[in-house]
Design goal:
Length: 277
């Protein structure tokens, strides 16, 4: 599979700046410790959670599962971002709050990171994580992911996403939050020194290289209006290739706070995620 990297702003376009979120967010360095503290507080307040459920042999192949009181309506899986290179599940537990309060079980996996793992390996790992936790919680399955996680959940929703057919048959919705659906521009970034993408893998790991699964899945690309223009373009690009995708550009949010609504049961993003919008 060989495709040219799409142009954006001419041959001298700065792709590194296009993906440099923190450089364009005031107080960016304050967000990671804030996320970690909120996640730790959430886990402390929910002592019945199941932490570090193994879904593979790698030390990072572990997931956390939070269950609501009573029978769950189904399962939500949230996949974190970090450009496939950083973070783990422990920084994001609080983002389970909205769906959990709506009556859904919520799982958050960690996964091996680049450069140890290639993006294609990470995709297979997340598919295995979803298959594993889906076997623990019956009912419909709804996926959400942020940034690189948005790439991963959308990639799983393709005709060649790697999910077990039984799991795929339960997949009701995918919400890609600030997701990356065409990885070819990353070939022109310095972060590719760590990711190690080549042209073939950048194309084969792009969701837009495939048709979406023929199963009836609600597809949403959610992005902040104050994000880097490239992330808005990536969301709109998904709709160009998958016309049934709904694109939501949320006013007043940037790459680091566009996920905050997942903490609240009645927020627009949570309502879309759990199917109550």
């Amino acid at each position: 599979m060989s495709m040219q990297v799409p142009a954006a702003g001419g041959p001298d376009f700065d792709w590194d700046d296009a993906y440099a979120n923190g450089a364009h967010i005031a107080g960016a360095d304050q967000f990671p410790p804030r996320w970690a503290a909120a996640a730790a507080a959430f886990r402390k307040a929910h002592p019945d959670q199941q932490l570090d459920i193994p879904y593979g042999d790698h030390p990072r192949a572990r997931l956390d599962l939070f269950r609501p009181a009573g029978s769950a309506l189904g399962l939500v899986v949230f996949v974190h971002g970090g450009y496939w290179m950083r973070f783990d599940k422990s920084s994001w537990s609080h983002l389970a709050q909205g769906a959990l309060a709506a009556g859904w079980a919520v799982a958050l996996p960690s996964y091996p990171l680049a450069p140890e793992a290639r993006i294609s390996e990470i995709t297979r790992t997340i598919a295995r994580a979803v298959d594993t936790v889906a076997a623990l919680v019956p009912g419909p399955l709804r996926l959400a992911g942020h940034s690189a996680g948005g790439h991963l959940v959308t990639r799983l929703a393709t005709t060649e996403g790697g999910l077990d057919p039984v799991t795929l048959g339960r997949l009701a919705a995918v919400v890609s939050i600030s997701g990356l659906h065409d990885l070819r521009p990353l070939l022109r970034t310095k972060m590719n020194d760590t990711l190690g993408l080549d042209e073939a893998e950048a194309a084969s790991e792009s969701a837009i290289s495939y048709a979406p699964s023929p199963a009836p899945i609600e597809l949403t690309a959610w992005v902040g209006a104050d994000e880097r223009p490239e992330f808005i373009r990536q969301s709109q690009l998904l709709k160009q290739h998958w016309p049934d995708t709904a694109v939501v550009i949320e006013d007043g949010t940037h790459h680091f706070d566009v996920i905050a609504g997942l903490e609240w049961v009645d927020s627009p993003i949570t309502r879309v995620l759990v199917g109550s919008a």
